[in-house]
Known about the structure:
Blueprint lengths: L16 H27 L2 E7 L5 E7 L7 H8 L12 E7 L3 H15 L18 H4 L4 E2 L1 H34 L6 H12 L5 H20 L4
Antiparallel strand pairs: 1-2, 1-3, 3-4
Helix pairs in contact: 1-5, 5-6, 5-7, 6-7
Amino acid sequence: MYEDFEFDDCSESYSNDIKEIEQVYGVLAVELRFLKLDLETLTHYGVYKYVYRHNKEIIYVGYTSASSRKGIIERVECHAKESKFKPFLKDTDIYFISLRNNVEAKAIESILINQYKPILNTQEIKDSKAVYDFTGVIDGTWKSYSVITNIQEQICKRKEYLRVLDKSLAIIHRVSQDKGDGLLSISAVKRLLQKNKETDFNHYALQRDIDLLERAEEIIKYGIHL
Length: 226
């Protein structure tokens, strides 16, 4: 497919692009792993509250447990679909605290519901007979739910970068194998694809590959700062 194409500058044909892609891929994979661990730690056990922005009234309190696959994320997503929540969502902020186990989460939920009587907590909650004093925990630092959404965005970004790099490696290997002269640089592969795009009926697919390689170049150069 690419045998008849000659490079104007042979020094441009081969480079360490493969190594650079693999290095960046490795860093992104490690970062993704730690972000997922951070997210799991934050959301596994905990209590969350919806606070009305105008008067700081707590309008709902809930807790998450081990039975909830995604913890607070799953609960917030469910609430967003509930009719009783919809009128308030635009005017509320969500806060949460991470806890160690179900016992703490259920006890603190019970304490807060009985203390504040949130209007969206329609189910009766019995007073908690907790052995421990959770005052210090309740009065501690509540984190904004935006902390979770920011981590989710970082996870999605890294997943996308890894997808682009993975596909770019596959393109480089495929084109280099067709050319038969060893692994080519990204710029050399792009030039080959551009040349073939002029005559190949499948030029849309070739342009897609070129776009992916250009995206990979940006990721290598700028990383997560894109």
